[in-house]
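hiii so my PI (J.) wants the whole complex modelled not just the main chain, which honestly fair. so below is everything: two entries, each one labled with what it is. i double checked the lines twice but i was tired so who knows lol
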Amino acid sequence: MDLLKDIARSLERGDDEQVAALTRQAIEASVAPQRILNEGLIAGMNVVGEQFRLHEIFLPDVLLAARAMNAGMALLKPLLIGDAVPSLGTVVIGSVKGDMHDIGKNLVGTMLRGAGFEVIDLGNDVDPIEFVDVAVAKKARVIGLSALITTTMPVMRDVVDIVNERGLKEQIKVIVGGAPVSRNFAEQIGADDYGYDAANAVDRVKALMASA
Amino acid sequence: MRPSIRFLDDDLIQRIVREARDILRELGVEIHNRAVLDLLGDHGARIDTTRMRAWIGDDLVDRALESAPRSFKLYDVLGNETHDFSGDRVYFTPGSAAINILDGETGVIRKPTTQDYVRYARLVGELENLASQATAFIPADVPETISDSYRLFLSLLYCEKPVVTGAFTIEAFEIMRDLQLAVRGTREALEARPLTVFSCCPTSPIKWSDVTSQNLVDCARHGIPVEFISMPLSGFMAPVTLTGTLIQHTAETLSGVVICQLARPGAPMLYGGSPAVFDVRYETTPMGAVETMMVDCAYNEIGKFLGMPTQAYISLSDAKQLDAQAGLESSMGATLAALAGINNVSGPGMLDFESCQSLEKLVVDNEICGMTCRLIDGIVPREDFPALPLFQELLRDKHLLIADHTRKYWKQEIRYPGPVIDRANQARWLEEGGLTLQQRASREVQRRIRAARPSRLPEESRRDLIRLMEAEAVRRGMDRLPDREDPAQGG
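here's the output for the full assembly
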């Protein structure tokens, strides 16, 4: 259907106003919301994801496409029933206790939302216990931890330890990232995964969700 | 005439500063330290302790700029003057706080050890074009809780040069101050002859953490010089335009200047930074980008316009190896920094977005620094007028190799680099092994370390340093400090 293709193309261009207008048009034309979602919005995001993976487009293009996706979803959500609302899962993110830096964490959060995750951003300087408490309360499958200075990295281990002590290792996965963090460090502290940049973090979170 | 480069005219500088003042006055700065907020509040700033915010008016900025020192000096562990941060004097120092080291033998980036640090300290003491050392990397064989003080301890123990450093926690300031007092003897002596510069970093955009703002105040009150390291990222956490980035850098740095000068009027400071553009393709912050370097040079002009000596992270590379990229990025940065007259140039030795140090790169960068120092010495007539007698001599003798004029000026006029730089013709190069830059640098590192003279730090100071650091290590849960073999002594 041309209208759905137009939605996808507009999303690929990052044109949120056009995506909203065309989505509204499709709804008024009695196109099934599920079709608009799958053949319009998700189809467009899939193309964006592939182009990004091939380095044909870059971070700002992805963020614009995510904004366009959200513009369409805002209209579709009330019409989609229960499980049809796409969310790849809930992720709790934050910069660990003692760390005020949130640049990387903000980028990861934005990318995760664009990819379809529900993201709860606890901000910076977050207590280890808070990560786990919120993850349990919001039924999050993944906790993402960010640190930009070496002195705050040990706090990441505290979060992993709390998850283990509460017997939550199978339900909640911990992924870590940040400039001084490495895959080696992630393994040492028993984290489940490590993301070397925001795009990689999204891929790793998808893998963690799939493994749950 | 000293060669120079300029990016901003005075009118643009004034417009940038005006906008920065507007930001501080209207939007304020976020400060996660109640005592620092109160300090600003006590001096008339509007503060909101719930939102952890302070609005800094023009009066406070003006007062801070009035009391800001126009220059200051640094001294080595023996008390000799090594730096006069004023005018367009340029001094190079290694990049600081790397978390990795490029292993010279394997070419692998790995975590550094105490032994690496001792080798580094010995080496940097011998590099004639690096006026100071930095706490260049973080040894991974001690706990994070002493990683900042331990670097300073090793630097003071093994190298005479003053140290560009910084604390990672509020608590570490005390031990780092005490280590300096072990060298200088008294607080008055340390204030009179500063031994270190502490990097104090606001967080972009326009924020100070609890730790960094407290470090800033503590340093100011003890007369320990600071350098502000504002790090806006163009296009991500700062405007994409270089002018917009400069506005943010100015606002962040001025907020630090105000805090510092309120804590202690006249406290020595360097107007510094480590901004970068944001590469949207790789989510990285390239220090080797020409735009990054342009912003460095430009904010240096703003700092000088405001009457302060300056600093920048420039003359470093984002490469992961000692390769052509490492050379071209570091060279361009060092050259621009020298032409711009940045007083404290941080960067030599650094790779991989300020995360990795390399001893081999350090010896190469030492040559780059030497070249740029020669560059800014410029072209100066040296008994060249009248020229006729010299040319008569040339035509008569067919050369000037041993002319009085040549013998008097050849070392001043022409710089002769060390063995790292290959100037042999191809035949000689092949005969002498056909060594690559990496190989020559590696040999030079070993040669320099073997030949390194031991530090002349008095024995009493050495003992005090060791006693202090051992006590601190025990306080932080270690049984003992890692072994320190001195490579210059054959260890």
